[in-house]
Design goal:
The protein is mainly α. Helix 1 runs antiparallel to helix 2. Helices cover about 75% and strands about 0% of the residues. The protein has one domain. The mean pLDDT is about 80. The chain is built from two helices and no strands.
């Protein structure tokens, strides 16, 4: 199996995810603000549902932000791990090449 990924893929993904996280937070705040004029205009079950939405909107926002924060942390960790692995692989290759006896592999008749 071959796994080929550019060195900046996870960094770019992390940047785009951060931007999406900001966009999502903004959209949630806009939704809550857009619902403000409706406050006090419902009675009965409609009022209960609206009040529940308003109370849970903060919980939903916090849960989404927490989830996105964990996602960003995971992406950042993967980026660091892949970068360290790439560097370690290069160092191991140099070390093995330094220890190799290339003269012994020559097939010329000296």
């Amino acid at each position: 199996m071959k796994f080929d990924m550019g060195s900046s893929v996870l960094s770019n993904l992390n940047l785009r995810s951060q931007a999406s996280s900001t966009d999502l937070g903004t959209l949630i705040r806009q939704l809550i603000q857009a619902a403000q004029p409706l406050e006090g205009k419902f009675n009965g079950a409609g009022k209960v549902a609206f009040d529940s939405f308003k109370v849970h909107s903060d919980e939903i926002t916090a849960a989404l932000n927490g989830s996105l924060s964990a996602l960003l942390g995971g992406q950042s960790g993967m980026d660091a791990a892949f970068g360290e692995g790439d560097q370690e692989q290069g160092e191991n290759a140099k070390s093995q090449m330094g220890a190799a006896n290339f003269d012994a592999a020559r097939f010329s008749g000296r």
